[in-house]
């Protein structure tokens, strides 16, 4: 019993700290490297550390969140962050809508039916930012780095970001995305459009988890796609 307690304290397994086999991110324990697009404040950093992912690259588009993000991951080895607002094309000046929930719902898209799901959230600031592509971010990384998992949470802009990966999208084994089955943001990528696009690239939907749902509005999903 004492040895087990010592192991759980100093050498915890994922399940020892609440990351059981049914946890949506447990699949990433098998990966060689992970990129998290739409980092926000790095809330999942401890999960990636517990899963012993060899390397984690965080990408965040809002420059005002970078200091919090870097502080959040500073205690974890093999985790780094870059500032880049990803889109299909680089060098475009776009409007970025910042929300009042510490930027958790901020997006390059204006709010759609968002208020029906989160009535307390509203846009408080609009700023102009220049876009970069996922393909470029992956290109400038260490050539020896192998990143085969993408976690993407970009508030309706998933399709634009994925298109910006170009042929480098094929390096991924798994893509884990948050998306809705209704117009959460105006003109946003939905579960249907995301599934269709990734299907054309050889990815199949493997699992999906309810993130939040509301009768008469729709469901926000966390969805796992696997390359086949």
UniProtKB/TrEMBL annotation:
<dbReference type="GO" id="GO:0008171">
    <property type="term" value="F:O-methyltransferase activity"/>
</dbReference>
<protein>
    <submittedName>
        <fullName>Methyltransferase</fullName>
    </submittedName>
</protein>
<dbReference type="Pfam" id="PF05050">
    <property type="entry name" value="Methyltransf_21"/>
</dbReference>
<dbReference type="InterPro" id="IPR006342">
    <property type="entry name" value="FkbM_mtfrase"/>
</dbReference>
<keyword id="KW-0808">Transferase</keyword>
<dbReference type="GO" id="GO:0032259">
    <property type="term" value="P:methylation"/>
</dbReference>
<dbReference type="InterPro" id="IPR029063">
    <property type="entry name" value="SAM-dependent_MTases_sf"/>
</dbReference>
<keyword id="KW-0489">Methyltransferase</keyword>
<dbReference type="InterPro" id="IPR053188">
    <property type="entry name" value="FkbM_Methyltransferase"/>
</dbReference>
<feature type="domain" description="Methyltransferase FkbM">
    <location>
        <begin position="36"/>
        <end position="195"/>
    </location>
</feature>
């Amino acid at each position: 019993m004492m040895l087990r307690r010592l192991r759980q304290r100093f050498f915890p397994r994922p399940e020892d700290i609440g990351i059981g086999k049914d946890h949506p991110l447990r699949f990433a324990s098998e990966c060689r490297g992970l990129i998290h697009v739409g980092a926000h404040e790095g809330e999942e950093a401890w999960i990636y550390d517990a899963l012993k992912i060899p390397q984690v690259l965080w990408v965040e588009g809002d420059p005002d969140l970078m200091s919090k993000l870097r502080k959040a991951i500073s205690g974890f080895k093999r985790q780094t962050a870059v500032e880049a607002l990803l889109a299909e094309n680089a060098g475009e000046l776009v409007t970025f809508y910042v929300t009042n929930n510490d930027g958790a719902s901020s997006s390059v898209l204006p709010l759609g039916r968002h208020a029906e799901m989160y009535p307390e959230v509203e846009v408080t600031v609009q700023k102009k930012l220049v876009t970069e592509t996922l393909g470029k971010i992956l290109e400038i990384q260490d050539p020896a780095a192998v990143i085969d998992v993408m976690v993407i949470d970009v508030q309706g802009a998933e399709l634009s970001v994925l298109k910006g990966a170009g042929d480098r999208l094929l390096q991924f084994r798994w893509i884990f995305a948050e998306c809705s089955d209704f117009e959460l943001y105006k003109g946003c990528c939905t579960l249907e459009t995301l599934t269709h696009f990734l299907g054309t690239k050889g990815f199949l939907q493997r699992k999906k988890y309810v993130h939040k749902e509301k009768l008469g509005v729709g469901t926000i999903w966390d969805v796992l796609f696997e390359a086949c």
